[in-house]
Every structure is written in C-alpha cells, then in structure tokens.
Amino acid sequence: MAISPDRASVGRVRLRWAATIVLTACALGAAAIWAPEGMAWRSEQARTLEVEVEAPAPVEPTRDATTKPTREATTEPTRETALAEPGDVPASGPGSFVGALEGGPLLGATGQLKQVRVAVEANLTAELDGLTAAVDAVLGDPRSWAAGGYRFQRVPYYAPHDFTIYLVTRETAYSMCRVNGVDIRVDGVPYTSCRQVGQVIINLDRWRLSVPPYVDNDIPLKLYRAYVINHEVGHELGRGHVGCPAPGRPAPVMLPQTLGLQGCAPNSWPYPDGGN
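Predicted structure:
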C-alpha cells in the first residue's frame, strides 16, 4: 500500500526524533558513566581543599607565648630570723646616757645576786626598750650565767647597782673602752664591744649589724645579741677569754666570737645545756 507524502513526512520526523532520543540517551549514558568518577574526583579535591583550609598551620612560639619560669615565693625575714637590722647606724653621739627608770623581775633561782642597770646613749633612746627586753630575756634564760650560780635583777637607773649595761655608738664605745687601754678598733674603726669595771659596753654597730661569723652561718641577730651580752657580762663576772676546744664544737661564750670562731660553731650561751 502506498504511503502518502504526509505520512512519509511524519515517519521521517518520527525517525529523526527516535534517532535524537537514542543519541541523547547514549550521550546521557556516557555522561552517567563518566560523571560519578568526575564527581568523585571533584569531591575528593574539595575535601582536600577543605582539609588544607581547616587544618591550622603550625605557629612559631613568640616571646609572649612561651612559658615564663616563676620565681619561688620568698619569706620576708622576721625579728626572730633577721641577720641584721636595717637602717642607718649613727657613728657617734653626745656621750651622755638615758637609763630605764623601772626595775625588772628577779632572774635566776639561786646564787649571788647582781643588780644591773640598763642605759643607752642619749641619741639612741629608741633602742632603750629593745635593750631592756633583751637583757631580761638573756640573763633570765636557763642557759645564761644564771645556771652558774648567779641571780640578776634589773634596777632603776638611779638605784644602787653592781654594773651597768650600756648601748652606745662606736665612737663613744671607743672612748669608754680605751680608759684602761682597751683598743676595740679593727682597721682603725671601733669594732668590738668591751667591759670596763662596772660597765658592760656594747657597740651599736655590732648590736645592729652582727658580725660575719654569725651572718655567714645564718645565725639570727637576736642570738648574736645574746652572745655579746653573755660575753661581756662574763668579763664582769671575772671570766677571761678562752679558745676553741675542738673544730666543730660549740664555741665557748668567752671565746671572742666577734673576731672569729677558730673552727668552732657559733654559740650564744655559757651553759648551752642549761647547766645539766
């Protein structure tokens, strides 16, 4: 049967559409086959880029970022542990004195009674209370001369007395000590304390600054003060200087420790064991 021209045209159109559909399907199929690999590549690339962006680059430490070492806290020295007393130390004074006007308790249990006055040079009145308290504490300690057959009592300045404990500037100490030919100078500077008859003369420099044998061994100033009171009172009680009995042993209180220890260890007391 013959096909009309219109039908032929329609057939050709349908054939072209069919071919187009086939070609399109092939193209889509090819795209479908290629696309997952390409998409996978692009996704992997994207992930790689994301990682490169999100991963922080190493940062070189700066001076501010480094950990700084912390200094250990230090303990401020107290009156009990201080090796010296701060502040200026006057070198001279008027050579007149101010004394404690009140007496103190009886110190020691048995033995010969010694009545003691306490005085400071007139420009050192701020030191009077400290000196008074130290004298009471030292002479009343069971390791002091109270363990050796003595009792002490501090009396008012104008009362009868056996001896006086003076705290004076170094130049006044030199003047008082040289009366009987005692020279307390070291390298031309009045350095040590001394005793004259009825007078225990303590050099303010030593009272405030201590001495190297004590400072170098970290011995508190209060123990050097105990030493110098006991040492000079020992002279007043008739004791003379002695040497170090053996290296490392406690220094006898009558060893002149202000000038050196001779191999002994610092010691402030005539009877370190309390007389036992």
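Summary: The beta strands are 97-99, 106-107, 112-121, 150-154, 163-168, 185-186, 189-190, 194-196, 199-203.
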